Amino acid sequence: MTAKTTSARSLLEQHGFAPTADGSLYRPQEGLDERGLLGVVTAAEAHAYAHGLSARVQLGIPTPADIPASARRRPTVGTGPQTTPSARRRTR
After folding, report:
1. How many C-alpha atoms does 84 have within 13 Å on its Cβ side?
2. In degrees, to the nearest 5, what angle opens at C-alpha 87 toward C-alphas 82 and 92?
3. pLDDT of residue 75
4. Which parts of the chain register pLDDT below 50?
5. Which end of the chain is least crowded, N or C, by CB within 10 Å?
């Protein structure tokens, strides 16, 4: 995460995010599982909006726009057993 203002940096630190060595990014605390990470991120985002700060969360999950369309498949014709036409009966 990045923070452009002092208020944003303070907010992230309140939620347990720590700045990297160069101070340009904030990382969540170590040892969080997926659920815990989602919790701190959403709490920080809600807190930011409550204070009038904009927040943008990127989770790295592809959206439908990121997934290329596949080539259309041709429908397969019946996959059941092949039958031969029955012989015509002669009428008298």
Report:
1. 3
2. 160
3. 62
4. none
5. C
pLDDT of residue 86: 65
Tell me if residue 37 falls in helix, strand or coil: helix
pTM to 2 decimals? 0.59
What is the pLDDT at residue 72?
63
Coil vs helix vs strand at 26: strand
d(CA 28, CA 40): 8
Amino acid 20 reads: T
Q: Which residues pair with 27 in a beta bridge?
A: 18
Q: What is the DSSP string of 39-88?
A: HHHHHHHHHHHHTT--------PPPGGGSPPPPPPPPPP--S---PPPPP
